[in-house]
Amino acid sequence: MSSFEETSGLSFEVFPPKTAVSNQKIYQTLHDLQDLRPNFISVTSSNRTLNFENSTLKLADYVQNTLGIPGVVHLTARYFDKSQIDQVLIELKKLGIKNILVLRGDLAPGCPPKKDFNHASDLMTYIKSQDSSFRLFGACYPESHPESPDKVSDIHHLKAKVAAGCDCLITQMFFSNDTFYQFQENCALADIDVPLLAGIMPIVNRAQALHVLKQSECHLPAKFTLMLDRYQNDPEALRATGLAYAINQITDLVTNQIAGVHLYTMNQPAVARYIYQATKSLFTATCSPY
Ligand code: FAD
């Protein structure tokens, strides 16, 4: 794990805004996150807009070169061909961005996929063959990817992803740390030895909960469902318990010396700040990321 020690600690994910109004807000959001001194900020990309240069790349440039925080661009293998990837790599080099989260992406209506890269690992192999200095992040799934027929094939393909050049893994969100620890053990048994960053999604309202859970197909522990049901008509209480739940998860993970926590911020710096304030002393005591 030593080659990626700089990712120990807290990192954030943001997404490019979909409207002009939120477009103005995102820069303030990024400034607010800057104070929290994350190890990096990753910027998602959408296969619906395919507007990579004007959204993902622009924000990652801002993170990297204006805020001085390492930026990570998300790049979806299915929606780029080789010549487009070559262009993206040139742009990233120009901007000094070395970190790419390489994903397969999902099929979206009206967005036919390109044919050069079928899986994230195909794109990783290609990028490393073009320029081995890029640091590649990959996605992984403590509950297995929904398309995987079983855990064995999921881990098998994950190992191939690491062999293809993945330097660090970030998990899909999960709400049971035991599931994460079991997955971590399975990775260790398969000799998957790159750092594993735990993806944590603080749930702060019911609509958000239902939306992200539908998208990710994550399993919910009974105590989590109870919380959603009990406070469904009390937004303030739901927010408080959702934050407490995420802080509990992080406290347990950091105590168990995981490599790092990647917070799905949902572009809400106040949520990230609250969690940072509650957990920063734990990180300082264990992995000193700040
Ligand atoms: P892969 O690694 O290609 O795996 C997908 C499935 O194929 C798995 O079941 C795997 O076991 C299997 N598989 C892998 N290799 C092979 C092979 N060689 N042969 C046969 N089967 C194989 N989506 C976006 O559109 N934009 C984003 O910004 C984005 N960010 C994300 C960030 C994180 C941290 C995570 C966890 C997910 C993100 N996603 C994003 C979603 C992601 O694109 C989907 O989950 C997608 O379905 C799978 O992507 P992957 O990179 O894990 O795919």
From TrEMBL:
The EC number(s) this enzyme carries: 1.5.1.54
GO BP terms in the entry: methionine biosynthetic process; tetrahydrofolate interconversion
One Pfam family this sequence matches: MTHFR
Keywords: Amino-acid biosynthesis, FAD, Flavoprotein, Methionine biosynthesis, NAD, Oxidoreductase
Cofactor requirements of the protein: FAD
Top-level EC class: oxidoreductase
InterPro entries named in the record: FAD-linked_oxidoreductase-like (IPR029041), Mehydrof_redctse-like (IPR003171), MTHF_reductase_bac (IPR004620)
GO molecular function: FAD binding; methylenetetrahydrofolate reductase (NADH) activity
Gene Ontology CC terms: cytosol
Keyword Metal-binding recorded: no
Pathway noted in the entry: Amino-acid biosynthesis; L-methionine biosynthesis via de novo pathway; One-carbon metabolism; tetrahydrofolate interconversion
Catalytic activity: (6S)-5-methyl-5,6,7,8-tetrahydrofolate + NAD(+) = (6R)-5,10-methylene-5,6,7,8-tetrahydrofolate + NADH + H(+)
Protein family membership: Belongs to the methylenetetrahydrofolate reductase family.
NCBIfam families: fadh2
UniProt-recorded name of the protein: Methylenetetrahydrofolate reductase
Native source organism of the sequence: Liquorilactobacillus ghanensis DSM 18630
